[in-house]
Amino acid sequence: MSAIKAGIEKMQEAMEQKKANDKQEKANDPHAKPSDREDAQFEANKAAAKAAEHHAKAEQHKTKHANS
């Protein structure tokens, strides 16, 4: 069961990382309004934090599976 949970967390990590990358591109777009760029930067940071959280959970599940 831990292996399945680890896989799910890895998938969620990848999705959040993609979201963070997309928002970061928008934040760096010189043609976007400054307020949109600030919002995109905030969302990118939030998605990156979620990705890191999912990564940590995936590693916990992977370690738990390896030790059981």
Characterization of this structure:
With 68 residues, the chain is mainly alpha-helical. It has one domain. It contains 2 helices and no strands. The protein has helices spanning 2-27, 34-67. Helix 1 runs antiparallel to helix 2. The longest helix is centred in the C-terminal third of the chain and has 34 residues, at 34-67. The chain is rod-shaped and about 50 Å long. The N and C termini lie close together (11 Å). The relative contact order is 0.21. The mean pLDDT is 91.
What is the fold's blueprint, element by element?
Elements: H1 2-27, H2 34-67
Mean pLDDT: 91
Please describe the biggest sheet, giving its number of strands, its sense, and whether it closes into a barrel: none
Our measurement of the CA-to-CA distance between the termini, rounded to an integer number of angstroms, reads 11 Å
Structure classification: mainly alpha
The portion of residues assigned to helices is over 70%
Taking pLDDT < 50 over at least 5 consecutive residues as the criterion, the unreliable ranges are none
Strand content: under 5%
Order of helices and strands: HH
Count of DSSP-assigned helices: 2
The shape, in one word, is rod-shaped
What's the gyration radius in Å?
A: 15 Å
Number of strands: 0
Number of domains: 1
